[in-house]
Predict the structure.
Amino acid sequence: MKTIILPLAAAACAMCAAQGAFAQSTPTGVTLYGIVDGGVEVVTHSPGGNGGTAARVSSGNMSTNRWGLRGVEDLGSGLRSIFVLESGFELDTGVSAQGNRLFGRQAYVGLQNQYGALTFGRQQTAIYEMFGAFDAFSTNARYSLSAVDAAFNGRADNAVKYKGSFGGLTTIGYYSFGRNNDGEVPGSPETSRDVGGGVSYSAGNLQVGVAYDQYQGNTQAIRQRNAKRLAAGANYTIGQVKLFGGYRWLQDQGADSATAMGTHTNLYWLGASYQLTGALQLLGGVYYTDQRHGNQDPLLAIVGADYAFSKRTDVYTKLAFARNRGNSNLGAAGVGTVVPDENQTAFTVGIRHRF
């Protein structure tokens, strides 16, 4: 083995040194960027205490808070090295988001050319990356599609991902060896595995997309259990109006729980945005979940307005209503943010700055 490995290692080192000498003479760029978003929120039937009305400072109402570093280096012949390190945080407390991770939103490195990008690290799933375009409130906001299903804001650790864009066509495929820092079990490749992909297409005023995601149980005992999602969405622009709609099928066998009995639901949503003036935008969306083997069927309705002072700073307001029954607990900001079987009304007003 040494007679094979040592020459290969020496050759690899020589190639890296030669490439490094070349790369130093080519342009290199690193960009610092981010979003800071916060305001005041009032919500009814909030969990904790007596389940009454809560008033508080809220974080990430229109866009989740983040700061990041994005880098690119031209390696010649159309080839570039790329990286992203992106950190989420809660504005009201200053703590890191995504389980208190430093770079919990994204952390990857890879290569890119005219045929696409191949990247390695913690990355967004296809459903997350594609479906922000098919929700009036995007999937990065507190009151949005991701409140109904957190998978629309999903990421996978230990992932290899390909993304390519060819005219109006975009394709994504990825494989995670351990989606939540709990996989990569020797001799058990199924444990915590996540695989998926998607395709979107834009033509004129129309954009459509479809994406699939399947992940396995996060321990060896439940590695055969899985959660499967298939989603399709579209948007269409008519003058100052943009229409949104979509569907998501879910079959969850309890991939994250040794006791869960499984879930089969259909999610439907519609939305619209209207650019009333150059600075003022009105938004609305309705999200309905059909639980196939139960009578909970929660519904979330949201309206909002956004006023841009500039390209970087805007103020906004949102009003949401969540209807629950049969012990469901969907709140305006997500599952578990309301007392079970209670309806919730939520109102927020805030400011967002991009840099």
Q: What stands out?
A: The chain has four helices and 19 strands. The longest helix spans residues 2-23. Confidence is low (pLDDT under 50) at residues 1-26. The helical segments are 2-23, 97-100, 126-131, 145-148.
